[in-house]
Specification:
6 strands, single chain, 45% helix, alpha/beta, 219 residues, Rossmann fold, globular
Length: 219
């Protein structure tokens, strides 16, 4: 039986990844250095501090590149605070089913806490989530499992009986490293043979996850 459900936010609960991706070009253009092809795909699921580390490595500690990371965050947050982001299919239905079953839910996201809480409030789903683990809490970034382990600890749940819901390969790697059940609901990156091997299931939407749980096929 499931003891907890742990939700990523960007790309899983809300259609934010396209907003974050579109902010990279203007941010680098503003600061000067050219955005390296393929670099952005490495960032999905990572905290800002980990992204800064990767950018520093990729650009030889060029301070303009680090400034571009900060500008990217500013652009993305400004857009989402002003306009929000669309809810992904099933975001209303899945937490409602879990609530009916007495399964507590928590958000574990690389995004800043203020932005996570804004999305939950604007999306009308904040009442389903008892805890938020955010990117500015100082925990190691995915694919390290620390954010998920902290979420399970907060809910007094065993990882082996807790379900992680993720859209990114880094999130699935983190869930696997922590010993969690996991479902990948792909967004910007299609599942690879690695993520299919590590994930308990791969689903097309949160509605599919709801149906599996309703039928007793997860947990």
């Amino acid at each position: 039986m499931l003891e907890a459900a742990i939700f990523d936010l960007d790309g899983l609960m809300f259609d934010t990844e396209s907003i974050w991706v579109s902010a990279w070009g203007p941010a680098f253009k503003e600061q000067g250095p050219e955005l390296k092809p393929g670099l952005v795909k490495r960032f999905f699921g990572m905290s800002q501090s980990r992204i800064e580390e990767l950018v520093a490595q990729a650009y030889g500690n060029d301070p303009r590149a680090i400034s571009a990371v900060h500008e990217h965050i500013r652009i993305g947050i400004e857009e989402m605070l002003a306009h929000g982001a669309p809810k992904k299919s099933g975001l209303d239905e899945l937490p409602a089913l879990l609530a009916d079953k007495g399964v507590p839910c928590v958000v574990a996201s690389a995004s800043p806490r203020a932005l996570v809480e804004t999305h939950l409030r604007k999306g009308g789903v904040e009442g389903f989530f008892s805890t938020v683990i955010a990117g500015d809490d100082g925990l190691p970034s995915k694919p390290a499992p620390d954010v998920f382990l902290e979420a399970a600890r907060c809910l007094h749940a065993a990882p082996t009986n807790s379900l992680v819901l993720e859209d990114s390969p880094n999130g699935i790697r983190a869930a696997s490293a922590g010993g969690f059940l996991s479902v990948m609901v792909p967004d910007m990156i299609a599942p690879t043979s690695e993520t299919r091997r590590l994930a308990t299931r791969v689903c097309n939407s949160l509605l599919d996850v709801r149906d599996l749980i309703a039928k007793g096929e997860l947990g």
